[in-house]
Write a structure and sequence with these properties.
Layout (H helix, E strand, L loop, with lengths): L15 H12 L3 H9 L1 H4 L3 H12 L3 H8 L2 H4 L17 H19 L4 H12 L14 H23 L11 H21 L20 H31 L1
């Protein structure tokens, strides 16, 4: 019989370490996985610059993702011509150099730092800084773009793993390809969960109805009421019109 583990679901949204522990246990992300990720620094470390360039080339290849950085240019590119259009905006600007350095630093933490409370907070911050929450009005990126980025990043890392494995570099033959890929897949999944948490509608959580605050959704309620009335009126009018037409014939 499978052992049943009791989980405090409310705590999943208030305690990041508890959330991480639950998710890690569910996907079976453990110290073996972490060691494989840390061991990959031997080859991934010297490939980080190329990996980061690949990520930003992808982000700059779609208008919806490039637009995010374009809208932020006036905050960061004060000594650069800000009158350029979206197509002209380049990765050599101060903002983009800063963004690339930030991603490079994050990947370095991923492959060198312990998976403790500090790194868990980094995962959580990735979601927070990309959403307009708590009055924050800077970058607000749709979840679909965040998911697409993580999917691309995971695939790019896997590509580098195979590239190393198929090379003549030292240690390539001994690389546990399957284990390393699975470890990164789990780690990226965990990151994705912490990002998605900031996009989740609190009303979808267990117990939300017991703590439901009507004033928090007043406009939604009014709109639902109005659409209901309009739908009823429309149906009533159609039925009346049909009766009038039938009576005349």
């Amino acid at each position: 019989m499978v052992e049943l583990k009791e989980i405090d679901e409310a705590r999943l949204y208030t305690d990041n370490v508890y959330r991480y522990s639950y998710y890690s246990a569910f996907v079976e992300f453990n110290e073996t996985d972490i060691k494989l990720i840390h061991d990959s620094v031997k080859f991934l470390g010297r490939r980080v610059d190329g990996l980061v360039d690949k990520v930003y080339d992808k982000l700059f290849s779609f208008s919806c993702t490039k637009e995010v950085f374009f809208q932020e240019r006036c905050k960061h590119d004060k000594d650069v011509d800000v009158d350029v259009n979206l197509n002209q905006y380049s990765q050599s600007t101060p903002q983009m150099l800063m963004r690339k350095a930030t991603l490079k630093s994050f990947i370095a933490k991923l492959v060198t730092k312990p998976y403790d409370e500090n790194l868990i907070e980094e995962f959580d911050r990735m979601g927070w800084i990309h959403t307009a929450v708590s009055g924050k009005t800077s970058i607000n990126v749709a979840l679909i773009h965040m998911n697409a980025l993580l999917g691309f990043l995971q695939d790019a890392i896997i590509e580098e793993i195979f590239r190393y494995k198929n090379s003549d570099e030292e240690g390539a033959e001994e690389l546990d390809v399957e284990g390393t890929i699975r470890a990164y897949a789990k780690a990226v999944s965990i990151m994705g969960d912490f990002i998605a948490k900031w996009y989740e509608d609190p009303r979808c959580r267990k117990g939300a109805q017991e703590n439901f605050q009507p004033e928090a959704t007043t406009l939604l309620g009014v709109w639902s009421l109005l659409t209901g009335i309009l739908s009823y009126a429309y149906n009533w009018f159609n039925q009346w019109l049909l009766n009038v037409i039938s009576a005349r014939h």
